[in-house]
Amino acid sequence: MRRIVMAMSAWLAACSGTGDGAATTHVSRTNGGPPPGQHFELGRAATPAEVAALDLDVNPAGAGLPAGRGSASDGAKVYARACASCHGPNGEGIAPLYPQLVGRDPAGETFDFAKDPRIARTIGNYWPYATTVFDYIRRAMPQTAPGSLSADDTYAVTAYLLAANKVIGAEAVLDSAALVNVKMPARDRFVRDDRRGGHEVR
Ligand code: HEC
Questions:
Q1: Residue 127 CA: which ligand 1 atom is closest?
Q2: Ligand 1 mean position to 140 CA, how many Å?
Q3: How many of the other CB atoms lie within 10 Å of CB of 118?
Q4: Cα–chain-centroid distance for residue 57?
Q5: CA 196 to chain centre
Q6: Cis peptide upstream of residue 96 (ω within 30 degrees of 0)
Q7: How many angstroms separate the Cα of 24 from the Cα of each of 28, 29, 31, 125?
């Protein structure tokens, strides 16, 4: 505590310019934070385990996928327990808050979302990668307890939703290799945005 108080008084002295020695250096920063080269000495460095618990993202190519596996049939149980209360018993969604997850028309898929706002975007007709469906569920769902699903349960519920959308078979079992190999129906509807900073390069 004493070190924190000392660090803060040095910082205050540096701000007001009334301290002595190095602390009298004029500080023109007005947006808070310690002077350059100093720090508040509050808190502590995060442990590797704490960083690992948050460092969960999976990219479209599948980098970051955890070990584990799950079947669509096991995923049906996870879905009923953890997802159906919001997304409906069959993934039909509950308007207006809870999005539809299942629903696809393989025969008439036109990707006409811009022309017809009534067409629901679902995992089956809109998401370009199965890996990022897994990633989103793992990090964000169930909405009231994100991070509570095991890796196996996340593979299973992803398999269930992909099977319900007729992207994979009802008997499918997913692990990291199988997930990377799933080609989503909308995969080729998206192009990589290679504009610099998101703006067109002229
Ligand atoms: C408490 C309600 C609730 C529960 C339970 C819940 N979700 Fe969600 N889910 C939401 C809401 C709300 C959104 C929209 C979030 C947004 O757009 O920011 C969402 C969005 C999603 C999406 C993205 C939909 C899209 O295409 O944009 C997926 C996928 C999803 N949830 C899967 C699941 C799965 C799988 C479970 C069970 C493990 C689950 N959710 C449980 C409320 C819930």
A1: 26
A2: 7
A3: 5
A4: 6
A5: 23
A6: yes
A7: 12, 14, 18, 63
